[in-house]
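[Solved] Which block belongs to which protein?

Original post:
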Amino acid sequence: MSELRYILPAPAASGLRSASCALAVLLALSAACAPFTTEPRGPASLVIAGGTSFNMCYGYCRAELVVDSTSLRLVERGWDEQRFPVRERTAELAPEEWRHLRSLADLDALRQVEGVHGCPDCADGGAEWVEIRTARDSVRATFEYGSTLAPIADLQTELRALRRHFP
């Protein structure tokens, strides 16, 4: 037992060492528990998107418009990617256009109609969708092509007009 006396620290030193270890562990844990965020900053903090899809189609049958504070991006795809490779086009978005679109992008209104409405693309009628993405949330409504959902009617109209911006 006398050998253990030399291996184990004296009671006062033991208390100090324990407190130091506890403090180091607490600091490490508090750093690990500190909020880590991957929230986008600036232009990507809000994205408004919309698109169309037609299953019984030849050519560019699917289109997705993605809008952020500075740009529009239209991605078009065909079912046959050999004949119709992915086509992507972009355009700048004027600040006043973004402010207007952002004023129409009401997450609460979109939540009212979130999900699928009607029978999108039944009998090859086509499907359409609208989505709002934030750093913390993504809400999407899918509906029959060309139909209007009252709570988001103005946003639908604007997104359709922006899609037509690309010839």
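(Second protein starts here: sequence line, then its structure tokens.)
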Amino acid sequence: MGEEPFEEIGYPSIGRRLMEKTSLDDIRQFLFETVRTPVEVYIGDVVPLILSDYISRHAEDIDVVGEVPQSIRENYELLDRLQTRYGLHFGTVQPQYYPCGWKQRCHYVDTLGGFRYTRSILTIFFLANCPA
């Protein structure tokens, strides 16, 4: 049955879909270079998992719950330079998309320069409870 040759074996688009992982050090350095005065933010999505060394994968943005502090978001030149260097930018996720009591489930992680960040166990919770 069928001796006809295949043009490509396997997954032809895999080369386009594979990406370099975002390193823990790149995220830390990005945060360290971004802030010069102390600020506290809640970070959601995949970055808390990378910072906690639970996963290793590519990330394009650091999602701040609520809004990115004004002192950061208005420094366009710095943000452009850091995006070019690290391939990261700030995004936002609105707190109303999290369940009630989400802040009580957050844990302080670290202070980098003037940037104090917390990780939300909601991200871990949602990942751990996704149907297989």
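Accepted answer:
You had them paired correctly. Confirming on the second one: The CA atoms of residues 13 and 28 lie 32 Å apart.
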